[in-house]
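Colleagues,

Please find the record for the two-part complex below.
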Amino acid sequence: MIRPGNLPECIGALLFLGIGFLVMREGYRMQAYAASVFVGDHTFPVILGTVSCVLSSLLLLQSWRQPKEARTDAARATANRVPLFLCLLLLLLYAGLILLVSYVPATFLVSAGLFRLFGGYRWHKAVLFAAVLTGCQYVLFDVWMKIPFPAGWLF
Amino acid sequence: METLQMLMSGFVMALSPENLLMAAIGALIGTFVGVLPGLGPTSAIAILLPLTAVLEPTQGIIMLAGIYYGAMYGGSTTAILLNIPGELSSVPTCLDGYPLAKQGKGGPALGISAIASFVAGIMGVVGLVFFAPVLADQALKFGPPEYFALMVLALTLMVSLSGGALLKSLLMGTLGYSLAMVGLGPSTGMPRFDYGFSTLVGGFELISIIIGLFAITEVLKGLEERRLHTAIRKTGSVYPGKEDLKKSAGPMVRGGLVGFFLGLLPGCSAAITSFLAYDLEKKISRRPEKFGKGELAGVAAPEAANNATSSAGFIPLFSLGIPSSPPLAILLAGFMIYGLTPGPVLFEQHSAFVWTVIASMFVGNAMLLVLNLPMVWIWVKLTRVPYGIMAPIILMFCTIGAYSVRNSMFDVLVAFVFGGLGYLFNKYKWPVVPLILCFILGPLLEESFIQTMVMGEGDLTLVLKRPISLTILCAAAALLAVSTLLNRRTQARIREEKQRGAGVA
């Protein structure tokens, strides 16, 4: 099977090609509301979608011809991406927890996890740091700045 | 004369205790974030932008300008002491700054860097005082075709922001424009790209995208690189001697002039001017062989050019609404949070605000020098705060920042998703600044495009028939050619320096 010389670029080009088609399709949908064929909310999406498709096609061609960049030592050393996924997962969990148990408990729980993840601290230390951070944030944003955080569904 | 009067009244406002405090806090926080390895001015402004949103516009922008200058200075501190340039523009500072630090002369190098930044910053702000109102005055004659041409001119920035990958840069630009189109259409008011989700009708919030792409991405990069705190050698006194000052005066002025005049051109970034200033200094030096081994002129010239370009960048930003560098693009977002649109009408409608901000730049530059020289030890110690403590704090601030703009959890989710995307973009070298630039300019471009098409009854060649818009388009073509050439040259220089071992954080 023939493989592209630069696979990440090839995938990126394909994604942009898809985005280009989506944008163009939305432009054609908006044309129904326009008073003129050339001027309206549809014009720009159609132009932009076309440009995006052309550019991504060019990149796609280029990615087949281009040799993949040699991996550096630094890139090889950072091959372990588990902490990264954990961090992103914790952040998404945080967004869900805020809606579920409200801001303060969610911040405490997630920041304890983050301190453990980033600093490798033992749980008791991570919980202590999380309590201090949550307390400071509560005073700063909830009490002083009065930012209206969403109330949790549970309490 | 009128300009000077306005500036004086700006000084009266800027020297009020509250505004002075904001400038001082901005300079200090900016320096603090700037000295943290890996965080440059762009990330510093992105992280702190939401926190300034609670202030009134003048105070908020004064603080943001202070953060900008502070982070620039902080970036040069890490460049000199740790060989970690926060931005590309600090790479030339590393070339001689780090060898000086290794020789135990980090202190004088930091001192010269601060003084050069101050001198060039003041030169740049003086230029801003006289150039910006003239340019804004001319721009008042602009109609939709001229604005459309101006937006095309802003697109030439893509070349200098592309980092050598023009096709990817253009594609990221189209993504930025596409994201900007989500929401209500400007002409019919009908929702676009909402796919039945009511939250998408309100469009994406710029701050959430910025926080995701810059701040959260930076934290994820730190996690991947397993960043820790860094040990620093003894630096010596930060106050340079008479001899050092005498040797550095010429490079400072030359660097400042190169930085300012080239910085006036949209598309000519601080990275380009600092490399040019460094190379110019090396060429005219009687001892070119000393460069790269610890020559003070090699610190003074690029630092002056860097800061003069940063100040000069405010001229197209204030008068035309065009941000010429990534931090200024984020700063433009700061203006927009307060409902202020930089451009010719800004000088007309909010003159007191503009002149107070300009006056506060003088104050901010002076404050940086006064505060930072004696405090350099504190900054050095702060680089030792463990990353394991800093990163969760930054992430929690990012969450609040994304939420507080519209009190929406959707914006928080957007920030997290763009954080992940930003990491991937960074990993596979897709430049993110064109995305932000086009996201900001998208609505303006579309509006001016529709209005021009209506004016020309569907004929876009109207842009070529009006003298001002035609001139702007010609200028765009010329700038495109110049910035392509300069960018190629800078990329070649960066590759050269990378081969010699200077990395960019």
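The CA atoms of residues 104 and 135 of chain A lie 8 Å apart.

Comments are welcome before we finalize the supplementary table.
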